[in-house]
């Protein structure tokens, strides 16, 4: 369970998160939508402790992320995250990309890590690209590799930050299919996305962020069907 | 603590002479840059020309300039060429040596910069009816100069520092030469060269600042 | 312990010597240091009962080498000016030079005043360079160029880059004779006060300087001074190191 | 071809000078690189404000002629501190710091060239700062920094010609000594220049080749 | 009139144009469609002599483009061309971009060139951007500026090479509108494009290139309505 309690965060004078409260249950798929600069990415990077927060608390399975005593490197193994782009380590092959963290962080043996990596890469449909360098992959394949890499750490939660926005329209489908697959397997996920159709289909709940505030949160049918705030109405109209 | 008594007054009393030297240093460096840039453009054109001879000349120039010590180049410009009966004054030898060096390094920079300019730029120019030279002059070169502006600033600083090598060819009017002359008279090595170091440092800062302001004025895009 | 003790204790005497200044200092065919100053240093080391180590310096660099502790003394034809004595300690003179005007064959020049308006040069940091630069300033015409070492000066003179130079008579004669520098000739004596040169040490090392003074005295007394003169400079009388009408 | 008085002995003498050039260069490049990496990482890690004093000092090494640095260091260490170091030691110290000043810039630039999201991805997988540095940043930064570093090393070799001012007889000084004796400036200078060129040129080419190869993928 | 007679062109071992025959009448709008690498761009750059040809002839108003005696710089003034991207000279303002060629090539005086430039920029709807640098323009505005720049030389023919492919979908419309305007004014144009709707609306004839060969050429209704060759059928199906 991920609990976000009254989290505030500023960059200099700019307040990016203005008191966010949000709880994600195990097995839930939550999507976050909202305009550019509304604080979606910032929230994700706060959840796995890449960014410090100014006040409030974030608890992952009851552990406070930003407490001094928390071993972040250990906590992060629970939380997989995939960004919009630049996810691949360009100097490593696809297989090495995926094996790196299991070996270095979990201390797996080479054959063990390799078996795990192959399994996850096959899971996302890249079983035939093991010894290729990322520069040879399409953008969609790179993103799927990044997903496999995160899955190789056997995370309990997965965070996705607009993983399809930097892709050619042709390649968006394959990545969303992978996310769908994960959702269907019961993974707990938070997905920031601009793909409304995807959000509607896959999510248990959809949250709408606006200027650092979570303006609305509801199951997709309700949120898309009967948007309450004028901001959301405007946003939906613009993206339609 | 130290077993040495500083005599800063002695050194500071010579400040006016050293500042005169600084002016000469600036003159040589600026001139060598101006000529160096012009030559580097010519070398770049040579390398683009497709002519074996011209690009051979340009490549040799660039490689010798980049692969031998500047001190060697300056020494060569004075004592080396004199073996052929060509005599240059210390000032000219220093200028030639630094200019040779500048042109080589800048030409190499320009080549890198050219790679960063898409060839559709020149093509677009040619399509409008500009001749090859016009397309280079009005479209490619200005962009090339902009991309190489920072390397050019660094080269300018280098040129300033290189003037200190003029003493090996009998130069005694630049900042280093003046300082060395004063040192011969008084033997206050540390104080004199410390003052010279401060002046050199200030000159390079002024140049870097000036370059930044210049860049802001010149490159508004 | 002072420097003199240190030298004796270390068993090594490090002398700064200028090695492109024949016959005072130069290198033989094996590039080993030789010359009047080299022998002088060896004699001194022998007197101290230590090993001599010759450290080559240029004229501009001999004081920094001394003051920065890389050498113990300088046997480097250092002129004993009052300005310099503010910084380093001088012994009594161990040699005195007369200076000659040397010109390129292609340049017409009858006597030293012929240098007026010409391009002249000398070795940076030397007595004659300081004098010549002063002359050029006084004349208000012509050009003065200091080179880093004596060899560059004669090279430039021989190449015709310089019209004339002033150097010690010894150096001038040695260079003209050697044939290494074709196309140069001695024109005239330079009208300078003889250039008395002294050994140098750190200003505060009075014990060492006293020792040096006595050593120089002994060199003259024992005839070693004349012997070295004959060996390196040639026939004739070595310069008189005493000055009439004044103590010391 | 040349009618020369140059003897085998003299060639050995030149070779010794060349050996000195290479020795001084290797020392300076080795220690300068180690220091440069430390300084570079430090500057990157603590940010511009805290690093300002270090930045200033390193900048000084890049803003003053090496000749003056050598003369000053020599005078300061010897006259003022009276350490009694040999000229060779002083030359190595100054060249090392000089190298480190440039190297720190290269290191910082190379680290900055690693895209932030790549490093975030690494940290998100649970890699520690050290693991991120060694497994991700180092291999990527080397590709960016190595060509400049090769250029720097060659630059140091060429600049080492200036250590003659602290009584170190390196290649160019050896050449001048022979010129004094043999009076064949052109021939000797050619030999000297050729030596520098023959070391520098192939290495520079190698740098260019690596740069091309690595920027490709 | 542009006459292309049996033109062949290879890059090394690769034959890119395998004997093209094509005549474009004055006032005609011809669009060229075809897969990637089929030789469309190469043909355009051969027409204004930027690329040499291996055999065949290209005549523009009866002048042979690739004849030795032809003054290409003069000929090119007749033929405006706009590429897919990198058209703007980034170091010059919009006005200077457009004035450059009239001044340097035609030797116009400054006020004369300026008047011409302003006129053409207003024509493409950039009258308010005169003293702005191209980096401040959107991609669509940059392309329109490039069109104005070509028009400022009063060309008789205009060649367009996928001028909208590098643009955000939002910006495609404004550029196509400019092309439509030109077509309606009677400009003779050859447009390489992937915008089938545009090709259908605007062209007098559409040519389909396939692997260096002009596989089909016909008025749009016919070409799109009843494609003959299987290659074209496949191509149209893929782009639909
Ligand atoms: N490291 C940072 N330093 C300063 N400001 C930042 C930083 N990261 C983000 N911001 C600012 O914080 C605000 C919120 O950024 P954030 O990336 O969270 O938005 P977002 O909702 O993800 O937008 P988008 O849909 O464009 O990705 C923006 O105004 C952004 O400029
Ligand atoms: N300068 C060149 N050197 C070598 N090959 C080239 C060159 N220009 C183009 N080619 C090759 O010629 C072929 C045809 O290229 P061209 O650009 O004409 O195709 P196109 O039909 O415009 O394709 P696209 O729709 O992708 O722009 C391609 O295979 C291309 O790789
Ligand atoms: Mg974001
Ligand atoms: Mg094309």
Task: Give a written overview of the molecule.
Chain A has 240 residues and is of the alpha/beta class. Helices cover 37% and strands 25% of the residues of chain A. Chain A has one domain (2-239): Rossmann fold (3-Layer(aba) Sandwich), CATH 3.40.50. In chain A, a hairpin with a 2-residue loop joins strand 9 (205-210) and strand 10 (213-218). Chain C has helices spanning 3-10, 36-48, 62-67, 82-85, 127-139, 150-159, 169-178, 206-221, 224-232; strands at residues 12-17, 26-27, 33-34, 51-56, 73-79, 88-97, 99-104, 119-123, 143-147, 164-168, 184-189, 195-202. The longest helix of chain D has 43 residues, at 8-50. Chain D has helices spanning 8-50, 52-63, 66-80, 87-113, 116-124, 129-159, 171-182, 185-216. By secondary structure, chain D is mostly helical. The B-D interface holds B 2-4, 63-64, 66-72, 75-76, 79-80, 82-83, 157, 161-165, 176, 189-190, 193-194, 196-197, 200-201, 204-205 and D 60, 62-69, 71-72, 75-76, 79-82, 154, 158-159, 161-162, 172, 179, 185-186, 189, 192-193, 196-197, 200-201, 204. One magnesium ion is lined by residues 40-41, 161-162 of chain E. Chain D: It is a multi-pass membrane protein. Chain D: The chain crosses the membrane at residues 20-42, 49-73, 79-98, 186-204. Chain D: One of its GO terms (molecular function) is L-cystine transmembrane transporter activity.
Please tell me the overall pLDDT of chain D.
Answer: 88
Shape field of chain D: flat
* Helix/strand structural class of chain D: mainly alpha
Largest sheet of chain B: none
Q: CATH topology of chain B, which one?
A: MetI-like fold
> In the residues of chain D, how many domains can be counted?
1
Count of beta strands of chain B:
0
Largest sheet of chain D: none
Number of distinct helices of chain B: 10
Gyration radius from CA atoms of chain D, angstroms:
21 Å
Radius of gyration of chain B: 21 Å
Report the helical percentage of chain B.
over 70%
Oligomer, anyone? heteropentamer
Helix content of chain D: over 70%
| Overall number of domains of chain B | 1
Number of distinct beta strands of chain D: 0
Pattern of helices and strands of chain D: HHHHHHHH
Span between N and C termini of chain D?
49 Å
């Amino acid at each position: 369970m991920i609990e976000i309690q009254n989290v505030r965060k500023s960059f200099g004078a700019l307040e990016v998160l203005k008191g966010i409260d949000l709880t994600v249950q195990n097995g839930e798929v939550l999507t976050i939508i909202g305009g550019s600069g509304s604080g979606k990415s910032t929230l994700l990077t706060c959840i796995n402790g890449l960014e410090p927060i100014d006040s409030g608390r974030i608890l992952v399975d009851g552990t406070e992320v930003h407490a001094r005593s928390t071993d972040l490197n250990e906590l992060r193994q629970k939380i997989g995250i995939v960004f919009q782009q630049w996810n691949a380590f360009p100097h490593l092959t696809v297989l090495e990309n995926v094996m790196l963290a299991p070996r270095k962080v979990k201390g797996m043996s080479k054959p063990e890590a390799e078996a795990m990596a192959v399994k996850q890469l096959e899971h996302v449909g890249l079983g035939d690209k093991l010894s290729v360098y990322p520069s040879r992959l399409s953008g969609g394949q790179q993103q799927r590799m990044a997903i496999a890499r995160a899955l190789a750490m056997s995370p309990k939660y997965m965070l996705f930050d607009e993983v399809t926005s930097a892709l050619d329209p042709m390649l968006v489908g394959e990545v969303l299919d992978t996310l769908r697959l994960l959702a269907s397997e019961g993974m707990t996920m938070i997905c920031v996305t601009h793909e409304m159709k995807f959000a509607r289909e896959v999510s248990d709940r959809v949250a709408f962020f606006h200027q650092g505030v979570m303006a609305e949160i509801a199951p997709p049918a309700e949120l898309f069907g009967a948007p309450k705030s004028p901001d959301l109405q405007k946003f939906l109209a613009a993206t339609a | 603590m130290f077993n040495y008594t500083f005599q800063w007054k002695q050194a500071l009393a010579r400040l006016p002479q050293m500042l005169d030297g600084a002016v000469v240093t600036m003159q040589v460096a600026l001139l060598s840059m101006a000529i160096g840039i012009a030559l580097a453009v010519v070398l770049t054109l040579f390398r683009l020309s497709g002519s074996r001879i011209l690009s051979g000349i340009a490549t040799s120039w660039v490689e010798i300039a980049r692969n031998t010590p500047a001190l060697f180049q300056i020494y060569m410009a004075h004592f080396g060429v004199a073996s052929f009966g060509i005599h240059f004054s210390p000032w000219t030898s220093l200028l030639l040596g630094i200019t040779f060096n500048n042109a080589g390094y800048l030409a190499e920079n320009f080549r890198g910069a050219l790679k960063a300019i898409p060839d559709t730029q020149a093509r677009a120019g040619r399509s409008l009816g500009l001749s090859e030279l016009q397309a280079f002059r009005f479209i490619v070169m200005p962009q090339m100069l902009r991309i190489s502006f920072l390397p050019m600033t660094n080269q300018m600083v280098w040129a300033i520092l290189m003037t200190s090598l003029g003493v090996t060819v009998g130069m005694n009017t630049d900042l280093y030469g003046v300082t060395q002359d004063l040192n011969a008279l008084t033997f206050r090595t540390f104080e004199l060269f410390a003052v010279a170091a401060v002046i050199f440092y200030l000159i390079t800062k002024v140049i870097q600042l000036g370059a930044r302001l210049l860049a802001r004025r010149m490159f508004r895009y | 312990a002072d420097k003199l003790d240190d030298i004796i204790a270390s068993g090594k005497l490090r002398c700064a010597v200028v090695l492109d200044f024949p016959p005072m200092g130069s290198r033989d065919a094996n590039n080993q240091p030789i010359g009047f100053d080299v022998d002088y240093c060896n004699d001194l080391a022998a007197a101290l009962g230590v090993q001599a180590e010759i450290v080559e310096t240029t004229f501009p660099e001999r004081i920094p080498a001394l003051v920065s502790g890389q050498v113990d003394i300088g046997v480097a034809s250092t002129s004993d000016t009052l300005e310099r004595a503010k910084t380093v300690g001088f012994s009594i003179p161990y040699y005195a030079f007369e200076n000659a005007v040397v010109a390129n064959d292609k340049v017409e020049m009858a006597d030293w005043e012929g240098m007026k308006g010409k391009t002249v040069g000398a070795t940076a940091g030397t007595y004659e360079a300081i004098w010549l630069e002063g002359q050029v300033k006084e004349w208000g015409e012509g050009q003065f160029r200091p080179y880093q070492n004596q060899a560059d000066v004669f090279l430039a003179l021989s190449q015709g880059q310089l019209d004339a130079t002033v150097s010690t008579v010894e150096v001038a004669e040695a260079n003209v004779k050697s044939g290494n520098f074709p196309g140069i000739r001695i024109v005239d004596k330079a009208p300078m006060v003889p250039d008395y040169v002294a050994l140098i040490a750190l200003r505060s090392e009075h014990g060492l300087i006293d020792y040096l003074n006595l050593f120089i005295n002994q060199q003259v007394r024992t005839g070693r001074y004349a012997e070295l003169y004959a060996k390196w400079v040639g026939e004739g009388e070595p310069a008189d190191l005493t000055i009439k009408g004044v103590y010391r | 071809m040349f009618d020369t008085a140059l003897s085998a002995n003299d060639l050995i003498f030149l070779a010794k000078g060349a050996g000195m050039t290479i020795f001084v260069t290797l020392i300076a490049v080795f220690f300068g690189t180690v220091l440069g990496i430390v300084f570079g990482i430090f500057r990157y890690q603590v940010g511009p404000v805290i690093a300002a004093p270090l930045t200033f000092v390193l900048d000084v090494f890049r803003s003053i002629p090496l000749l003056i640095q050598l003369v000053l260091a020599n005078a300061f260490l010897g006259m003022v501190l009276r350490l009694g170091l040999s000229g060779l030691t002083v030359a190595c110290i100054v060249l090392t710091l000089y190298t480190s000043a440039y190297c720190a810039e290269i290191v910082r630039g190379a680290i900055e060239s690693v895209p932030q999201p790549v490093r975030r991805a690494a940290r998100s997988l649970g890699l520690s700062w050290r693991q991120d540095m060694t497994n991700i940043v180092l291999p990527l930064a080397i590709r960016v920094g190595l060509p400049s570093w090769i250029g720097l090393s060659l630059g140091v070799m060429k600049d080492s010609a200036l250590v003659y001012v602290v009584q170190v007889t390196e290649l160019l000084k050896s050449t001048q000594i022979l010129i004094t004796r043999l009076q064949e400036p052109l021939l000797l200078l050619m030999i000297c220049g050729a030596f520098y060129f023959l070391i520098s040129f192939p290495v520079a080419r190698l740098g260019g080749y690596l740069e091309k190869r690595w920027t490709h993928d």
